[in-house]
Amino acid sequence: MNSHFTTLLLDLTELVISNVERILEDFFVHADPADRFQKCPHCLGEDVIHKGIAYQRTVRHLPAFGRCVFLCLPAIRLLCKPCGATFIFD
């Protein structure tokens, strides 16, 4: 399925769709954040380091076409250089 069409259909502008699969009666949309980094939630600093992906999380989205839709998102770990806070990409 065309990922640009899927992004428009699901209105997920902050995500880049990499794959859509149907397993039984459910749709699983595999996505990555459009921005690789985000500001620190503690100090709002922009100097953060990408520390890898801790795990893959599955989030239930709004149903589409009478089927359940799940988003499969990576839990990207980030480290803020100025304050030393670690956090997961939100």
Automatic annotation (TrEMBL):
Pfam families named among the record's database cross-references: Zn_ribbon_ISL3 (PF14690)
Superkingdom of origin organism: Bacteria
Transposase IS204/IS1001/IS1096/IS1165 zinc-finger domain sequence ranges: 38-83
Protein name: Transposase
Species this protein is from: Sporosarcina limicola
